[in-house]
Amino acid sequence: MSVDTTKVAKSNATTAATPAKPSKLGGAATWADERLGLGGVVKKNIRKVFPDHWSFMLGEIALWSFVVLLITGVFLTLWFTPSMAEQQYQGSYDQLRGIYMTEAMISALDISFDVRGGLLMRQMHHWAAMLFIASMMVHLMRVYFTGAFRKPREINWVIGMLLLLLGTIEGFTGYSLPDDLLSGTGVRAADGFMKAAPVVGTYMSFFLFGGEFPGDMIIPRLYIVHVLLIPGLLLALIAAHMMLLVYHKHTQWPGPGRTEGNVVGYPMLPVYMAKAGGFFFIVFGATALMGGLMTINPVWKYGPYDPSKVTAGSQPDWYMGWPDGALRIIPGWESHFWGVTLSWNILLPILILPIVFWLLVMMMPFIEAWITGDKREHHLLERPRNAPTRTALMVSFMTFYGLMWAAGGNDLIAIRFDMSINAITYFMRVAVFVGPVIAFIITRRWCISLQRHDNERLLHGYETGVVSRSPEGGYSELHLPWSEEKQFTLTSRDRDEVYALESDVDANGVPAPGTRANRLRAKLSKWWYGPAVQKPTAEDFAHAHHHGDHEVEGGEQGKELH
């Protein structure tokens, strides 16, 4: 028996459940998925959960300011001429018209005065560079203070330090390109720094400048490094940083429902993507406002570079200020060996100190892991007060950095405040050693006091403002316990375990392998954890709860009377 299929409905709706012909966008997506297998990857990561906290936005400021740098940088490359060939300037700026200068300087002036929107783009680019480096530094400090660099994120910490280093070098190459008197002074200083390196210094300078300073090749070479080499490395490192962020999942603050094995927050699409997109426009808008209303790097005021001149009161960009401060306050130490002069007053502050300081900060996750012996994975953040020694170390580093940075402006401080520049220099020579120690002691004691305060609140509750009088005539303020959510958050931390060396020798009296290292580790572990205050035990809570029952009853009576 045959069936007339022409009378059978294709669907119980007016529109077919599966269209006979997919849309162009759907067809393109299907075509790509069949060849690249993107569907599974997108489906898995599109619902990726990210926690919501204001401190996580610091890294996004760095990301979006880098995007602004790329956008404005592409615009500037269309008009900038990286050439040191000299020509007579005939542009719109009357004060410099008729003066010979390099084509790089002429193009910088043309961008500022003759290209529509050029000055805005120049200043946005420069402000975005400032914001990029500043936000990276603040983001790295947030990661350090909260312990977000611990296992398994040590590599991401190293990547972040590399990004900070490359961003600093990128900034130096960028503001050196206009070939004005200020940037030329910076390049001249860099030439002197290289020549201070023993044996290889003069060769480095010769090959970089293509001969004697200033030569005619440094601007084109810096241009290639600035627009091609370092941006490529930055893009690769940022991509690796984001991939590891997704792979390891985002850290989060402790709280109810938040554990080492989950993430509580919002999915990437649509919530987080919308927030991130809106935040990009905030960063872009703020940068545009600064670029339009706040003058930065007015090269027309400095004039073209002349090796026989130096800009009065010249200062490097702020992120290069702390090595300059070290250079200014170090005594004029020199050594002479077999006809070779070693300029320690340049080697130490410029070529040795920045590298050692950067390596020390970069190695902090591995140093801390070795001291504490902590090999666990950590996805919950720590409050800075709960890691007193770690927090105090970073504050001491910040104090050292800040004092060096202030020393970089010793001449301007002396002029503004009518002080002796020699007195400022002598003060800074002492302060850079004493200041970090004082900052470390104060910060660690402060954190320990805050830990005690937290324990006091956990065990005895918060102040109610209700004062009761005992039958004997004494007065006391009543306390009420914190909510369970607050108590859980305050106690969501591990107790510290000080590493103890069991024995220096084995059963036969032979020194155990690695005895010296273990002794050092035991001493450092005691110094690291020793003064910290641990969270209350269950017995402490039971005793405090028994003692607090009467206060709660009295508090209820006090509220009724109130």
Automatic annotation (TrEMBL):
Enzyme's top EC category: translocase
Compositionally skewed regions (Low complexity) per UniProt: 9-24
EC number: 7.1.1.8
InterPro entries the record matches: Cyt_b/b6_N, Cytb/b6-like_sf, Di-haem_cyt_TM
Bilayer-spanning residue ranges: 61-80, 126-145, 157-177, 223-247, 278-300, 346-371, 392-417, 423-442
Region (Disordered): 1-25, 542-562
Reactions listed under catalytic activity: a quinol + 2 Fe(III)-[cytochrome c](out) = a quinone + 2 Fe(II)-[cytochrome c](out) + 2 H(+)(out)
Cofactor(s) needed by this chain: heme
Signal peptide feature range: none
Location of the Cytochrome b/b6 N-terminal region profile domain: 28-254
Pfam families per record: Cytochrom_B_N_2
Keywords assigned: Membrane, Transmembrane, Transmembrane helix
UniProt-listed PANTHER family: CYTOCHROME B (PTHR19271:SF16)
The protein, known as: Cytochrome bc1 complex cytochrome b subunit
Gene source species: Nocardioides malaquae
